[in-house]
Amino acid sequence: MASFYRIVVAALVVLATITPFLQPASAQSVTEIRAKALFNELRCVVCAGQSIAESNAELAQDMRAQVVVLIEDNRSDAEIRDWFMTRYGDAVLMNPPLKPLTLALWFGPVLIFLMGAGITGLVLLRGRSRLGEGEKNP
Amino acid sequence: MSDAALRLIIVVLGVISIFLVGSLLWFGLNPQRDPASFPTSTAIEPDFSALDLGTPLPGFEGFGDVNRVRSEAAGPYVVNFFASWCQPCRLEHPYLLEFGAANPGTLIGLAYRDDPLNAAAYLTSDGNPYAAVVADLNSLNALNFGLTGVPETYVFSADGDLLFRSPGPLVGALKTQFINAWEAAQ
Q1: Which among B9, B38, B96, B133 could bridge A45 via Cys, Cβ 3.0 to 4.6 Å?
Q2: Residue A86 contacts B, CB cutoff 8 Å
Q3: CA–CA separation, B3 vs A98, rounded Å?
Q4: Which domain holds residue A39?
Q5: DSSP single-letter state for residue B51
């Protein structure tokens, strides 16, 4: 009897371990996988900072449907992004494209950090050189 | 490096960074700016290819040929997205009626996410300002025009260049801007 319980417990432990790794019965189609990736890249234009994957706004539903239509029309991911960009502008992409107009957007934070680091460094340098002077002339 | 030179560099860098961060805050904390609003520029390229795919409204079949209005418009023309369920649309409706009567053959209406029956009932009870009006059942035209909500109004030149767009009802400041854009386009 004891060995029976042992087998049951072992079976339960194995089941609990592998359950999170089990795939749902229906495998995802290529269209579904591509559509999901694109949903995360396109901005919902009526929501604040959400992609169309996250929003259930009517316009987001329309955009998702159109992404699927375009995939089924054999358009590449880049072509689909372009399709939305010509109609909505760069802002429709969650990651704005890198071009002269968006340089400040991409590198502004780095620039501000470098200036801060530069000022801090110079202040420290100045403090050290003053300390040196202080040793010479007490 | 001499102490005076270091000090000068620190002061100059400090002033520049205060100015940079200050202008960022000036822009970002402006109470007039709504961070949730999507930029509606006229730099987009609307696609007219699906205009003839609209569904005519029951009782308004004679108004179903949107492309004819586009091709027959001698000057600029206007595309207006609306819906019978849209409350702000009712705010601009009296002005649309006025505009449609004053500028016959220039105003195109597209019903967004609306049952053609409901859109037709709305135009029957409140009046039809449009020279041509269809329902955009699959929302393809909405996406083709970069729509961000209803109502939204687009002013096109005779050549199809987007001159102005109003991302809201034509009342108050947007109405004034619309009238100015329309008059400038003549």
Answers
A1: B38
A2: yes
A3: 41
A4: 27-97
A5: G
